[in-house]
Amino acid sequence: MGGSDLSSLIRLSTGGKKFCTTIDTLIRREPDSMLAAMFSGRHTLCQDSEKGYIFVDRDGKHFRQILNWLRDGVVPTLTDAEYSELMREAEYYQLLGLLEGISSVLNKRKEGEESHAELTRTDIIKCIQSERVRFRGVNLSGLDLSKLDLSFVDFSFACLKNVFFSRANLQCAKFRGRCEFTGANLRGALLAGANLQGKYLQSL
Fold this sequence. Notes:
- The termini are far apart.
- Helices cover 31% and strands 7% of the residues.
- The chain is mainly α.
């Protein structure tokens, strides 16, 4: 099959799913990919002579996403599990641009998950100084609150995941309700009188 006419329509059967595109789409954005090589005219392709479909022996679940990437260069919005599946297909087809795009999206997503704290350490210190020390339901995940005087502070229903409380004064602090303590560091913290009943703490 020749690849000289880039506007030629190509019918693909990928894992039983039918797709229609052009040679230009398959070659232009990722010229060094396996798909570009397949339709460069240098390879013999398995084509159904009756229906005109070229058979590609891969799962067709994400091939629509691959074609859309080749058409417009936009990384689709998917779940992490779906991205993992799409990356497997992108690796097979040697779509380096798509792989880089997915990696960038996943890194930004990870950075966003790790920086959800609604306040900074400076905000906390200002609140302590002004005696406005109630953080009920506030997301403080990942903050460094070490060595601060947090006595009598109300942290009820707050998210304290990965908070660094080392050597902080938490005497009589309130942790009522469902507080997320996963990964919190409480080494050396003063906890006398703190309401921690029923709380599961890690990294003590």
